[in-house]
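Worked example

This section walks through a single chain of length 345. The input is the sequence exactly as stored; nothing has been trimmed or padded.
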Amino acid sequence: MYTEFFGLQKLPFNLTPDPEFLYLSTKHREALAGLTYAVLGRKGFVVLTGDAGTGKTTLLSSVINQLPPGKVLSSILLNPTLSPSEFIELLMLDFGIPDIPASKAQRLWTFQAFLLQAYRNEKTAILVVDEAHKLSTEVLEEIRLLGNYEYGSDKFLQIVLLGQCELDALLDRHELRQFKQRVALRLYIDPLTGGETADYIRFRWAKAGGTGKPPFAPDAIEGVVRWSAGIPRLINSICDSALLMAYGDNCSSVGLHYIRDAAMNLSLMPSPGGMGGLMHPPPPPYAAGDVPVSRLGPVEVPVRQNSNSDAFDADGDLPSLSGYGPARTNSSILKRLAGKFGFPQ
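Given that input, the structure is written out below as tokens.
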């Protein structure tokens, strides 16, 4: 709607996952390298976790799109809330196996033959389970057993579990220790820092055909950082709404008041006199766009563990955006792999 007004070719902050708009932070770059390595190396199981909206699905789509055409057979299951029998049936249907036997034994025999034929044809079979934190222990056990199909050191089926942070706790349960032991690589994506959020906005603006700098004022960008908590999906929602409001006002620049109104509209902060929302508004009342960013008040980010981090550090970044407790670290090997795969720094 506002693309022509701002001189764009595409919507820059669309919520639909699009590999073309994949912004690679350090953590995203490492995770992309890890996923590519695990799949091409036939490592079997790989787990990628991160908070909702951090870009896990987009990242996986990018990996699959980069694999050699005609050499990949993939099944991406978006709804894991199934019984073990239903899971196997949906898996086979998604792989394009037309005739599904009635008994479980026959289904597994048919699927094993399918994987063996794919391996002989030098094709990589990939099973992706999105929203994997919702998997039952029974279905996880079925998935673990599917990982037993192998020839020598090569796994017939490459299994990728994408899930929110609850998946980490699920896999740490004692009864799933056998599954956990088979995971070749565990990868993590955290929310973007303040500096990365600003880079993310510039990156998507350029990808959408924008020339020059995005029309967001410096205080507006800082407002996005504060009220999105560094979650890419929320950054998109806030920026898209703010651009739409600016377009409606025939305004070519996006000030802080547009960002504030967008955050309020999305319930990321309470409306005046109201309660609720993800974020708290600045303590003092203020008029649209005329209050220094330094008076926006402390940032409060959603947390998984106890965290007192509520302000920008000396570099202007949210110190942990983490609210994630101790910092999680991807393997240092992945930093080197990212360079080997040619992912931009």
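What to look for: Confidence is low (pLDDT under 50) at residues 274-327.
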